[in-house]
């Protein structure tokens, strides 16, 4: 994934850099958004196992929040020389499943939207599983935890350890 500079419309010569645009591969964008849609569906199932109204309400809120608000925020980049436009879907895939260097949302925004489809439904489902145990709730909870842990692990910065060798004489 390459980073391309993005310039103001008046200065197409490239002197005044506004921001940089990341070109997301088509395969990453498609697979990332399918995984995100599956994650939202599993979250909805988690809330449906608790209460039908809660499941429908969560689905509506999640779709509006993720594919409405967050996608809109991803498209607010002042770019005119972008290589390929993904209409914010590449940034959605990168936010939840991309490498750390692709995540360009503010940390507070990222934490809110991660918590919305990550730990929130898992916590509610865990509480209701303790009250009324079923193996379906455990299976949904495990899938939610796998998605949440994987998505959270992509926020770690990759550092290479410094290795110092002892000098022998």
The string of secondary-structure elements, in order, is EEHHHHHH
Average pLDDT level: 75
Largest sheet: spatial strand order? 1-2
Structural class: mainly alpha
What is the makeup of the main sheet? 2 strands, antiparallel
Regarding quaternary structure, what we see is: single chain
Low-confidence stretches: 1-18
- Rg over CA atoms: 20 Å
Report the helical percentage: 55-70%
Percent in strands: 5-15%
Strand tally, please? 2
Please, how many helices? 6
Number of domains: 1
What does this structure look like?
There is one protein chain. This protein is mostly helical. It is 59% helix and 7% strand. The protein has six helices and two strands. A two-stranded antiparallel sheet has the order 1-2. The longest helix has 25 residues, at 26-50. The protein is flat.
Summarize, please.
By secondary structure, the protein is mainly α. The chain has helices spanning 26-50, 52-74, 89-97, 107-117, 119-131, 135-153; strands at residues 3-7, 17-22.
Distinctive features:
59% helix, mainly alpha, 7% strand, two-stranded antiparallel ribbon, 169 residues, single chain
Describe the secondary structure blueprint for this structure.
Layout (H helix, E strand, L loop, with lengths): L2 E5 L9 E6 L3 H25 L1 H23 L14 H9 L9 H11 L1 H13 L3 H19 L16
Antiparallel strand pairs: 1-2
């Amino acid at each position: 994934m390459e980073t391309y500079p993005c310039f103001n419309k008046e200065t197409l010569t490239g002197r005044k850099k506004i921001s940089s645009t990341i070109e997301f591969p088509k395969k990453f964008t498609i697979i990332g958004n399918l995984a995100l849609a599956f994650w939202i569906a599993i979250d909805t199932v988690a809330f449906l196992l608790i209460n039908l109204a809660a499941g429908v309400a969560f689905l509506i809120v999640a779709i509006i929040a993720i594919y409405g608000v967050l996608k809109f925020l991803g498209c607010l980049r002042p770019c005119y020389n972008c290589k390929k436009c993904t209409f914010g879907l590449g940034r959605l895939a990168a936010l939840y499943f991309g490498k750390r260097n692709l995540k360009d949302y503010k940390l507070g925004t990222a934490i809110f939207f991660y918590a919305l489809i990550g730990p929130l439904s898992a916590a509610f489902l865990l509480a209701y599983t303790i009250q009324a145990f079923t193996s379906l709730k455990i299976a949904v909870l495990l899938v939610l935890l796998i998605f949440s842990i994987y998505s959270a692990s992509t926020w770690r910065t990759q550092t290479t350890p410094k290795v110092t060798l002892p000098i022998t004489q």
